[in-house]
Specification:
With 143 residues, the chain is mainly α. The protein has helices spanning 2-21, 25-38, 45-58, 62-74, 82-95, 99-112, 119-135. It is built from 7 helices and no strands.
């Protein structure tokens, strides 16, 4: 029975990824949530949560996305996703108008993963955010 639930969870995750690729974000989110419901403690669940957060961002649900992404940062099952998730935390915070939180997340990314593939872009964007805060201006686009 457990193996069956795991297989169903993986299938729901794969379906969600396919739906994301075709721009069907609401359906993808449903599929990712089903994958979590079926086998919450499985090794693929951090990736499911990260992709669910990405779907939520596309649906304008940044408040929910930031909570999921932060959970992926804090988990230790799939460390490869942690820097990706930290970047997503920053982007969600910025989308929500929490510039200080966005800057904190970028600084955390640079401190914890200085050799991340995102480090150069994170440094540049952090500099832009810092300039905007100093000038009191509009924040630059992060995507």
């Amino acid at each position: 029975m457990e193996r069956f639930r795991l297989d169903l969870s993986v299938a729901a995750y794969q379906n969600g990824l396919d739906l994301m690729r075709t721009g069907r974000f609401a359906e993808a989110a449903d599929s990712f949530q089903e994958a979590i419901r079926l086998k919450e403690e499985a090794a693929h669940i951090p990736a499911v949560r990260f992709n669910l957060a990405r779907a939520f961002v596309r649906l304008g649900r940044q408040s929910e996305a930031v909570v999921l992404a932060q959970g992926v940062v804090e988990q230790n099952v799939d460390r490869e996703l942690q820097d990706d998730a930290m970047l997503l935390v920053s982007q969600c915070a910025e989308d929500l108008g929490n510039i200080d939180d966005a800057r904190t997340a970028l600084r955390g990314l640079l401190r914890r993963w200085p050799h991340s593939a995102f480090s150069t872009d994170a440094r540049i964007h952090l500099t832009e955010l810092n300039r905007c805060v100093i000038r009191g201006g509009v924040t630059p686009p992060h995507r």
